[in-house]
Amino acid sequence: QVQLVESGGGLVQAGGSLRLSCAASGIIFRITAMGWYRQAPGNERELVATITSGSKTNYADSVKGRFTISRDNAKNTVYLQLNSLKPEDTGVYYCNAVQPFGMDYWGKGTLVTVSS
Fold first, then answer.
1. Quick one: DSSP state of residue 87?
2. What are phi and psi of 76, to 5 degrees?
3. What mean pLDDT is predicted for residues 19-34?
4. Are 93 and 110 in contact (CB under 8 A)?
5. pLDDT tens, position by position, 93-115
6. Neighbours of 21 (CB within 10 A)
7. Nearest by Cα to 109 from 2, 4, 1
């Protein structure tokens, strides 16, 4: 089992920045990748960014050049730096961790609200 706890969400004006954190605990040594997803009201959950255990990153086209995913293995934490925020970035941001054999874990989410 893996437990994920997100933090760092909040209200920010367009053009501002936030840093989200996701702390992992439990059986974390088998995690192969972690990522951030978001869900806006009325929309489906969508990929924002992922990072593998080898630090290979992947981003949604809509956030490339603005968001940066990183990890601190010593702290078992993954970060998402959000810069140049837009109102369309508003949503609940969820942390995800993947283990072999289809094991998939989610945090409870942290709300990001970007005002225009």
1. G
2. 50, 45
3. 90
4. yes
5. 999 999 988 889 999 999 999 99
6. 17
7. 4
